[in-house]
Design brief:
- The chain is mostly beta strands.
- Helices cover 11% and strands 39% of the residues.
- It is built from 7 helices and 26 strands.
- The strands form 4 sheets. Strands 4, 5, 6, 7, 8, 9, 10, 11, 12, 13 and 14 form an 11-stranded antiparallel beta sheet that branches. Strands 3-22-19-24-17-16-15 form a 7-stranded antiparallel beta sheet, with no helix packed on it.
- Strand 1 and strand 2 form a beta hairpin.
- The chain starts with 7 loop residues before the first strand and ends with a strand.
Length: 394
């Protein structure tokens, strides 16, 4: 079913959708309305007949998030304050100009990132004095464990990236920053700590810098600093797009967790591609809630929470979706281009349970009698998991 198939337009005006289902349920909305929202959310305006009951909001768009503007870049975040059900993870969308710097800082939470476009240089030093410096580009990840100080700087083409933190109440505007700490430390203490005169600190910032504009840095080799303790034992960078995908009819999946990115102990993820006419199969996750970020395309997701309760949401590029722990769901491509999205979990492992595979590995007669089907259904079940499936045109 394509996006909006349930939505009936106003008679005489095909551009204005109405909350009327094909079977005649509903009625014309003649009151004040946000037409653009209704056009973007056809399955909210006219829910599928199978939707029932009450499920909290599972969608929030970065377009509705507060934009923090600085010389050198911008940022916006979606946390539990914006999407109350999202207790496990929070996200920040950030852009840095060429030379723009997310200043030296650290977090109480782990930081996982996916580079959306452009290039950046990242640096870090661990608790044993071992350092790390690398350049990252589109499709690359980085992960900094809690408490590890680091920085991010845009290179020649600038950059935009998604940051994910393992705490739903996290805010990137309340992190522990170099400038903020020094601004709130007496200058005589700074002098004693660093062994230089107080006058050296006459022009330090008086508040947190957060993002600032600087010159584009030189080559990676020109900025290398050799630590007497060596480099970090586990790389903080992972080139996800160089990882061979699992390809199935309808799309592909790349899974990254502590098994192939060992430093990433608290966030696991999958990069999913769903082609037009395909869907992320019916499944659930037995380890934690799912936090989603949509990179391209248009999709709809129905979430089933048991006891006859299900609700459908529409998603576009730049939206965040959320799925509560162990609840059944699927994601359909409702547009004409591939949907790419990230599934993320507060876990060291990616885990999912396939409805198709479960039934295929269960005694045939039990399945047939349970849901009143015959061999036409059970003979088509697959023992191998296909995360993305192509379904027939209706």
């Amino acid at each position: 079913m394509k996006r909006g198939d349930n939505v009936k337009p106003l008679k005489g005006n095909p551009n204005i959708p109405q909350p009327i289902r094909a079977d005649g349920a509903g009625g014309v909305d003649r009151g004040p309305r946000n037409l653009m929202r209704d056009l973007q959310n056809p399955n909210i305006l006219v829910p599928p007949e199978t939707d029932r009951g009450l499920i909290p909001n599972l969608r929030f768009s970065f377009s509705d998030a507060h934009m923090q503007l600085n010389h050198g870049g911008w940022s916006r975040e979606i946390t539990q304050r914006d999407l109350p059900i999202a207790t496990t993870l929070a996200g920040v969308n950030m852009s840095l100009t060429p030379g723009g710097v997310r200043e030296l800082h650290w977090h109480k939470q782990a930081e996982w990132s996916y580079m959306l476009l452009g290039h950046a240089r990242i640096t870090a030093v661990d608790q044993n004095g071992r350092n790390f410096i690398a350049d990252v580009g589109p499709g690359d990840l980085w992960y900094f464990p809690p408490g590890i100080p680091h920085s991010i700087q845009g290179l020649d083409d600038g950059c935009e990236f998604l940051l994910v933190f393992d705490d739903g109440m996290f805010s990137d505007l309340s992190t522990l920053s170099l400038s903020d700490w020094m601004a709130h430390t007496p200058k005589d203490v700074l002098s004693a700590n660093f062994g230089v005169p107080e006058s050296v600190f006459a022009t330090i910032p008086t508040e947190q810098v957060y993002i600032y504009q600087d010159e584009v840095p030189g080559s990676l080799q020109s900025q290398q600093i050799n630590s007497p303790y060596g480099a970090v034992p586990q790389t903080f960078k992972h080139e996800l797009l160089k990882q061979p995908p699992l390809v199935t009819p309808g799309g592909s999946v790349r899974i990254v967790d502590s098994r192939n990115f060992p430093v990433s102990k608290t966030i696991a993820a999958a990069l999913v591609e769903v082609e037009p006419g395909a869907m992320r199969e019916m499944h659930w996750h037995p380890n934690n809630d799912e936090w989603q970020y949509y990179l391209t395309g248009q999709a709809r997701m129905t979430v089933f929470t048991g006891n006859g309760v299900a609700r459908t949401f529409d998603y576009r590029a730049g939206d965040v979706g959320y799925v509560p722990f162990a609840t059944g769901h699927y994601i359909q491509n409702t547009g004409n281009e591939s949907v790419w999205f990230l599934e993320m979990f507060k876990s060291d492992r990616f885990e999912d349970v396939s409805l198709n595979q479960w039934l295929a590995l269960t005694p045939t007669e039990l399945v047939q009698h349970n849901i009143h089907v015959d061999s036409k259904f059970t003979n088509k079940l697959r023992k191998e998991k296909w995360p993305v499936v192509k379904y027939p045109t209706i």
